Amino acid sequence: MALVEAFRCHTLHHAIEFTILGQLPLMNPPPAQPSGHPQRWGKRSLILLSIVAVGALLWRQLPGAAYPTDLTRVGAGRATLVLTYDSRYVGGAEVMELMNGIRADYAGRVDFLVASVALPDAQAFAQRHAARDGTVLLFAGDGRRVGVLHLPRNSDELRRALAQAFGP
To answer: Which letter, b or e, does each residue of 127-154 get, where b requires 16 or more Cβ atoms within 10 Å of its Cβ?
Structure first.
């Protein structure tokens, strides 16, 4: 009889636990399992947007048009404009934008080059000519330096320097 009473109490105890846990609201319910779609989609969108923003920033830092960097062309028989460019500063990039606007007008008469100070030969070239970011150096066909202009403010100023150095 004692064994039956013990079994009854044990069974009753489990029945009470089941009833209480199964039907009464809990004080601290477990967190709802997210469906995954809204939050995951938002997180992915944010990551994608961040990647696009960084990519756009890096793209903006690239030169607008490809310019040769072969400085051995200076003194090779054609008038040459050399822009000293340092990617750590904005002045050279702004001058490059000015050059983009007038480059076609001088095609066939003036070579447009860029001396990127990230390259060892261009760094030595810039030091030899005391040039810094945004300095425009103008060379005659025989390699004589015929003009220097630092950070021209607009394309007209750049055109005047080219006309003065190489004629209209």
So the answer is: eebebbbbbbbbbbbeeeebeebeebee
pLDDT digits (tens, 9 = 90+) for 117-163: 999 999 999 999 999 999 999 999 999 999 999 999 999 999 999 99
For 60, the 3-state DSSP assignment is helix
Q: How far apart are CA 38 and CA 35, in angstroms?
A: 7
SS3 153: coil
The CATH code that applies to domain 72-166 is: 3.40.30.10
Query: Per-residue b/e over 17-43, b at no fewer than 16 CB within 10 Å?
Result: eeeeeeeeeeeeeeeeeeeeeeeeeee
Q: In terms of pTM, does the model score above 0.85?
A: no
